[in-house]
Amino acid sequence: MNPSTAGSQLGQPNTTAIVFFLLFVGITLAITYWAARRTKTTSEFFAAGGNISAVQNGFALAGDFMSAASFLGIAGLVATSGFDGLIYSVGWLVGWPVVTFLIAEPLRNLGKYTFADAVAYRLKQTPVRLSAAVGTLTVVIFYLIAQMVGAGNLIHLLFGLSYEMAVIIVGAVMILYVLFGGMIATTWVQIVKAVLLLGGASALAVAVLWKFGMNPAALFSEAARMYGPEVLAPGKLVANPLETISLGVALMFGTAGLPHILMRFYTVPDAKAARTSVFYATGLIGFFYLVTFVLGFGAAVLVGRQGITAVDKGGNMAAPMLAEVVGGTGFLGFISAVSFATILAVVAGLTLSGAAALSHDLWSHVVRKGHAPESEQLKVARLASLLLGVLAVILGVVFKGQNVAFMVGLAFAIAASANFPALLLSMLWKGFTTRGAVASMLTGAFSAVLLIFLSPTVQVELLGNASAPFPLKNPGLVTIPLSFLVGWVVSLLSPEDEASRRFAEVQHRMHVGALLPPPVVTPPGPAGSVPPGIPEAPRKV
Amino acid sequence: MYGNSKDDVLKALAAARWRVAGALTVAMLVTYLGFILLVAFNRPLMGRQLIPGLSIGIVLGAVTILVAWVLTGIYILWANRKYDHVLDELRR
């Protein structure tokens, strides 16, 4: 083994990487072309017509979640700080069971395209959808900035392209996917990418373990021999236990509030498929994080920490460098191309969920009060996708060189504080009211943003102040309970008869789905049309 | 229209679902917080190696991931067998 980087091809235009990347873009654009011809209704644009199977959706969910940040970031973290990386892997995974138990099925049964459908079901449409859109768009924009800035840096390091060029390529291809292929194309891009990423990471892990007699313990003990036994125990990341718990809570409940994840539950035919798809996703993501853990240690041992941090201080290049050491330039090219593809797919999913909030929640329900014709909704959705795509590119360039970690933390904290409490309360509590929902969502979003602004990440690391007014980097531990509390108190103060009267209907539909409400005559709609019984506008009781 | 009996069955079913979902959520929270609290407060224990290379921390981290998957599996089994069964009856 040669743990030096002198001969590394990293950052050079790599023929294999370019060929693999062009192949990926070619195949996914062909999928987009195919999908564009089947994307004629809003249901097809936002929810792939509800025709995605549980296995396919499991891969797509996993794809949405396994961003380049979690693949390269966790591998890098493990390579540079050992065990601590595993804390992130575990935290990122444990949100999924919660999504299965509490959210997936009711959400699928109550809604149509966005999580606001479920929250607004028995409440007043306009205020609820407005505040839900505020939360969704804030999450989407911060997550998009993080991905775009990360993409620019990564691709600059991997391919040697300029930062701005990388951001523009990502933006342009992503706009093509979403604009023309909608959710059908986005889902298939996500599936292709998930398979490539899982396959690539697994092959890399096998290549590493091969050198250690296929025994992970031998790899770990070699790492302990090189860097001391403390690499196998919690390290400096957990210097502040409260911090660890706050981050953990935000990661756990953030998953249940991420708009692009919640939106995936509308792409499957029914609640059963929604439930099963999370089971597949949990398995795939758990496996992936364990593999990433092996890659991190593999990189520490086979590439060497010095070499990794010499290329990128954050350690983000650990996995690609490991690929070069065990498999040569060809493998480096493959892993680089997969990382690029991963960013493309994740930003496409995010953009689509932002477009759904703009078009379905804001335009169709707030501006047009549910009277927008299908063709108009579709036009607005496409326009929204285009705007968000262009905005993502501009923000990516503007935020060049910024610390993106706090933006991801912010996105998770806002999702966990703004979206999750209102969603859960609307499903569980008869006394939940319009004002309660609005107060809970806005409190969650604004308190999370405010506390992050007052946190050490912004005050000390970005602004260079000596100390920060709020001690925690991640505000989840404060803002999630606060959002529940505000939702509860405001609801108690503003009883809403109609909302509680319609709770029985919500209960019924949440469990039984749209199919039952007694003998509804189901008109035989065209294949892929909206299931009958889903209210387009608020129903009068 | 459906009568009261169906309503009652649905109410009982809804209550059962929230009970199962709640219990499993608590199980997940306890497992995860247990892991996090050990990480935060018992560093020496987490660093102890069972066999060379395999520290208790690594094993527990992997176990937490496994528990997440198993709990999800338990829910799916329950839902597919019991919950869907009653729902099918109701839909009739």
Automatic annotation (TrEMBL), chain A:
Xref: InterPro entries: Na/Glc_symporter_sf (IPR038377), Na/solute_symporter (IPR001734), Na/solute_symporter_CS (IPR018212), Sodium:Solute_Symporter (IPR050277)
Transmembrane segments: 17-36, 57-79, 85-104, 130-149, 155-179, 191-210, 245-266, 278-303, 331-359, 380-399, 405-425, 437-455, 475-493
Keyword Manganese listed: no
Topology class, membrane: Multi-pass membrane protein
Keywords: Cell membrane, Ion transport, Membrane, Sodium, Symport, Transmembrane, Transmembrane helix, Transport
CDD domains: SLC5sbd_u4
PROSITE patterns, per the entry: NA_SOLUT_SYMP_1, NA_SOLUT_SYMP_3
UniProt superkingdom: Bacteria
Compartment list: Cell membrane
Disordered: annotated span: 520-541
Alphabetized Pfam families for the sequence: SSF (PF00474)
Family of this protein: Belongs to the sodium:solute symporter (SSF) (TC 2.A.21) family.
Protein name per its UniProtKB record: Sodium/solute symporter
Organism: Corallococcus soli
Automatic annotation (TrEMBL), chain B:
This protein's record includes keyword Phosphoprotein: no
Source domain of life: Bacteria
Transmembrane segments: 20-41, 53-78
UniProt keyword Chloroplast present: no
Keywords: Membrane, Transmembrane, Transmembrane helix
Pfam family, one: DUF485
Protein name: DUF485 domain-containing protein
